[in-house]
Amino acid sequence: MILDDLPTPCLVLDLGVLKRNLAMMEAAVARFPGLRLRPHLKTAKSREVARLAAPDFGPITVSTLAEARYFAEGGWRDQIYAVGITPQKLDAVAALNAAGTAVKVITDDLEAARAIAAHPGAIQALVEVDVGEARGGVAPDSGVLPEIAAALGPRLAGLLSHSGHSYNGRSPADMAAIAEAERQGIVTAAERLRAAGHAVPIVSLGSSPTAMHAERMDGVTEVRAGVYMLGDLFQAQLHTHPAEDIAVTVLASVIGRRPARNTLLLDAGALALSKDRSTQAAPRDWGFGRVVDLDGRPLRGEPMVARAYQEHGEVHSDAPLPFAHLPIGARLRVVPNHACLTAAAHDRYHVVDGTREVIAVWDRMNGW
């Protein structure tokens, strides 16, 4: 089977690029002795990818209970469910742990911590620390931090932070500075809790850009990163990976040609690509995705999907589009702005390795 045989739209994963991205992150983490990588599978959502990213059933991060179950059934036991837990979900986590998994949850709420401590199941929790993103977490110097730790008591597993605000940076130096601020913040929080008599075995931080460019990691036990595996147009501009190392694309077919307007219509719209505009504020805006040829090579004029309707993607270009070579049914590929959201629209990867031959089909776990 080759790409020409596939129904469109569908998701294509280049195995060689995936492996390069994994190796690059592993090398970045290996700069710091004793630091371990806990890959975040929220982007890949695939056991086959996990076998490469977290071999030998190493520790992983997940973002939904559906992922936790899926990876637990595949053999990955050491998990952090890195979205704030609600009391209603504790029974499901406890059931997974009773079956032999070690799913740890996170919280930044005192009442939630009390619910975790009171639950009869075996559940450990990390306290989420806000190191500048201003999403979830308590400040490192917050008065509620030791209260949450005390409420958890022996169920306290450590601390967790996420430097999502690193996406506002634009250079390796920016990423290194944000990474150091995150490190200082979570280490300060850990030192406060240890001084109060709490064990803090896990000090977990990360984002793909900061994990790649951090200059210090002392006081940190593990790094979480996820989108680096697949890469996307936004991460390329954050210097997480080379611009050419984006492992996923959406295969699409030409369904309309408008030479007078120099536009094409593809059968990949918002539901196949997402409507994420992460590159809108980046140095280069790629609309709803960069359009390349069937072999993944750039096209003259650097066309992009400029408009995304539910099932239609409208392609614009700065140069005349090659209509003579793009009849109705011709195949193109769209490189995503944000791999996490684009991939979430699909239930499988069609795997290639630098050619048009499809060498495997890997499933994905979507839903919650």
Give a written overview of the molecule.
28% of the residues lie in helices and 23% in strands. The mean pLDDT is 97. It has 2 domains: 3-12 and 241-363, Lyase, Ornithine Decarboxylase, Chain A, domain 1 (Beta Barrel), CATH 2.40.37.20; 41-225, TIM Barrel, CATH 3.20.20. The strands form 2 sheets. Strands 1, 10, 11, 12, 13, 14, 15, 16 and 17 form a 9-stranded mixed sheet that branches. It has an 8-stranded parallel sheet with strand order 2-9-8-7-6-5-4-3. It has helices at 15-30, 47-53, 65-74, 90-98, 110-118, 144-152, 172-195, 208-213, 233-237, 270-273, 339-343; strands spanning 10-14, 36-39, 60-62, 78-84, 102-107, 125-129, 156-161, 202-205, 222-225, 248-258, 263-266, 290-292, 304-308, 313-316, 331-335, 348-352, 360-363. With 368 residues, it is of the alpha/beta class. The chain contains 11 helices and 17 strands.
